[in-house]
Amino acid sequence: MNLELKKKRDLFKQEFKRRCFNFALIILRLSESLRNKRINWPLLDQLVRCGTSIGANIVEGGNSTSRKEFINYFQIALKSASETLYWLALLKEINKDKLAEIDNLIQECTEIKKIISTIILNTKSNSKF
After folding, report:
1. What's the chain's Rg over C-alpha atoms?
2. Does residue 129 surpass a pLDDT of 50?
3. If residue 13 lies in a helix (H) or strand (E), which one and from where to where?
4. What is the maximum span of the chain, computed from C-alpha positions, in angstroms?
5. pLDDT band for position 2 (50/70/90)?
6. What is the pLDDT of residue 128?
7. Which of 80, 71, 83 lies closest to 20, judged by CA?
8. Phi, psi values for residue 127, rounded to 5°
9. What span, in angstroms and rounded, lies between the C-alpha atoms of 117 and 80?
10. Which residues contact 85 (CB under 8 A, 6 or more apart)?
């Protein structure tokens, strides 16, 4: 791999991790702002777990010792992203005053999910099983 390609790849990895980290921060801030309604509590607990788990699994996957382990962590992150979308959709229905904020999170989570899926597919296609 040439040096320029490696730099681009490393930059992408850093930016993607930062993007997942920022997504988790926004989830935490949203959770804090919606705690005033009791009906939100169980939904927010689930959202915080899966929404923050996406980035955590990406970071863990980046430290994998094998492709199989790497793929496994990214598949967990993908499942967490899917679950996050579910909880966001429920919260959106209950909290009409936060539609724009939740829609932005849904869009970001959908994009993160697409990136994770692409990474999994590319890693699998480059693997020799």
Report:
1. 16
2. no
3. helix 3-34
4. 55
5. confident
6. 56
7. 80
8. -85, 150
9. 12
10. 106, 109, 110, 113
Q: Residue 64 has which token pair?
A: 């994998």
Q: Which of 49, 55, 92 is nearest to 74 (CA)?
A: 55
Q: Would the CA dihedral through 76, 60, 86, 90 be positive or negative?
A: positive
**What's the token pair of residue 76?**
């967990």
What amino acid occupies position 62?
G
Reduced to 3 states, what is the DSSP secondary structure of residue 127?
coil
Quick one: pLDDT at residue 127?
Answer: 63
Place of tokens 């994998």: 64
For 65-97, the pLDDT digits (tens) are 999 999 999 999 999 999 999 999 999 999 999
Domains of the chain: 12-125 (1.20.1440.60)
Which tens digit of pLDDT belongs to each residue from 4-62?
998 999 999 999 999 999 999 999 999 999 999 999 999 999 999 999 999 999 999 99
Amino acid occupying residue 67: R
Distances from the Cα of 46 to the Cα of 6, 9, 64, 102, angstroms = 37, 33, 26, 15
Write out the two tokens for 45: 């607990």
